[in-house]
Design brief:
This protein has 102 residues and is mainly alpha-helical. The protein has helices at 9-20, 26-33, 37-55, 57-94. It is built from 4 helices and no strands.
Length: 102
């Protein structure tokens, strides 16, 4: 059984960029790197399909920042509620005598 070769994302991007900028044809890249044309075509197609995601990064981080702010507000509110519950419990327990009666 032959062992599959693994290529780094940087290598794949460099090879695809060489093909897109017409520095090398798919056939040239295939011969030079010893990679099948079909594999190079798949890399190129994947590169093109995923390229819009590069420009969406700003919206993803904005959504993440909004979610973090919402969670921080929730934590603050819950901390205040817990503190109030503790104070109420201490107040209610302070009126009892040692036997637990009023």
């Amino acid at each position: 059984m032959t062992k599959r070769r693994k290529f780094s994302p940087d290598f794949k991007a460099r090879v695809v960029m060489e093909m897109l900028t017409e520095q090398k044809s798919a056939a040239q890249a295939s011969r030079e790197y010893g990679i099948k044309d079909s594999v190079l075509s798949r890399w190129k197609q994947e590169f093109i399909e995923r390229s819009p995601q590069l420009f969406e990064q700003g919206t993803v981080s904005d959504d993440r920042d909004q979610r973090i702010a919402e969670l921080e507000r929730m934590v603050g509110r819950l901390a205040m509620e817990l503190e109030m519950a503790k104070k109420a419990s201490r107040y209610l327990n302070s009126g009892r005598n040692k036997s637990g009666r009023w």
